Amino acid sequence: IAQMHPEYLTTLSQTHSSWLFGAVAELIDNACDAGAKRLEISIQKGTLKSPEVSEVPMLCFLDDGLGMTHKDIVKMVSFGHKKPEQDDPEQIGRFGVGFKTGVMRLGRGALVLTQSKETRSMALLSTGYNE
């Protein structure tokens, strides 16, 4: 079993450091890989129970793609794919790092809610939670 230090999420955020829209493009590409015909991107206000900050902006992506099973979402938050050179139409992403690099460039965390025909799942990646 491979382990990763939580600070690696911060390292990943530097992948798109020269071009912020590359991070957004990664997330759009994942929606397309999932067969999405519709994608909404919005900025909403989130509320925190913190004395220093009460509201934070949230960048939201909502699509009508196939959704992910629990197994799929575990693969999404894991690092790398076994055979990136193979073109697998069932696989979302090619190398297994785009989602992580994209969301860590855009913010301090990502909450993913997904639904397939069989399951509903969620995943959290957060540098703030690690602190």
UniProtKB/TrEMBL annotation:
Name of the protein described by the UniProt record: Histidine kinase/HSP90-like ATPase domain-containing protein
Domain of life: Eukaryota
Source organism: Selaginella moellendorffii
Molecular-function GO terms, alphabetical: ATP hydrolysis activity
Pfam families: HATPase_c_3
